[in-house]
Amino acid sequence: MAHRVGPKGQVVIEKGIRERLGVEPGWLAIQQLVGDHVEIFFIPPEHNESLAGILAPYIKHHFPTEADLRAAREAAWLERAREEMAGDEEGGQQSSGDHTV
Fold this sequence. Notes:
Layout: H1 15-21, E1 28-34, E2 37-43, H2 66-91
Antiparallel strand pairs: 1-2
């Protein structure tokens, strides 16, 4: 479909094209002269929607207090230390890696 250039040099981007590209009001239209035609690239504006809670479905552990966080951290360090010590006992000697606990 063809559109006439308006008195201010404006042209209409067809609705089907805008919908297919997802172009909405407020997007930036970058124009580039290529040979004897113009290419237009559309850039969406920065979003203004909150991302709060977007990761909530992926959170498996909740640490409501600082004390709970410290306890969980200590338990993890103790478990890692036990694994290291068990590995040393099985192998008879310490591996060449750095085993700081």
